[in-house]
Amino acid sequence: xxxxxxxxxxxxxxxxxxxxxxxxxxxxxxxxxxxxxxxxxxxxxxxxxxxxxxxxxxxxxxxxxxxxxxxxxxxxxxxxxxxxxxxxxxxxxxxxxxxxxxxxxxxxxxxxxxxxxxxxxxxxxxxxxxxxxxxxxxxxxxxxxxxxxxxxxxxxxxxxxxxxxxxxxxxxxxxxxxxxxxxxxxxxxxxxxxxxxxxxxxxxxxxxxxxxxxxxxxxxxxxxxxxxxxxxxxxxxxxxxxxxxxxxxxxxxxxxxxxxxxxxxxxxxxxxxxxxxxxxxxxxxxxxxxxx
Length: 292
Hints:
It contains six helices and 18 strands. With 292 residues, the chain is an alpha+beta fold. Strand 7 and strand 8 form a beta hairpin.
């Protein structure tokens, strides 16, 4: 099996979010789940994607953290289709179907940039009870004065493939000050049936949206770039009239990890159906062969 290490949501090495990509030969089959889990644990990245071509423009992708299989992973999808493009398995411009546990999603390549369709956005509930808010912000290492001004914007569980708690904080300094209790956050994430917390600052001097992502329940204390979570954040901004339809947002993530990432999202309305695409660039850092 061909193996690649890819830095996604960056156009330079050592930036973005690293992912493993394993390409299954067309005549081959996915390895047993136990083996895929062991490979993901051996590579030690937050996600490793296993991809197999099943049609002229259709690919089947499975995603594994070191601890579990997950329905979808944004940065690993960007990494996967970058590998497919760079190795000549697909064209550098085109539209493809990515079959995942979150559904059949479209991926579009535009002269090197890769954009992936998110699952239909859905709000799974606003966190508004005072005791729940206190617990959430406390587990993130924040006190009440770090909440958003007058608590105009409340945390909300949103999914565009994976459910995350979207957590607004009042400014970038507060975002940088987050120091989670990871054991407590993992317990809270399990109770609330979410992957983790995606925190963002409401205002930044550069006009971009700065964010941080934490998912210790899945063995990821912090992640440098998360496509699905920024898709969810896009929907949050839309719901709160902070982002208009047919507009584009740029998210900056990974700064606290010294791995700056840039994620682009686009919000579209077609036949009264809201859709979100998330994308960016990627670079192959290393490649090799897994002998199993």
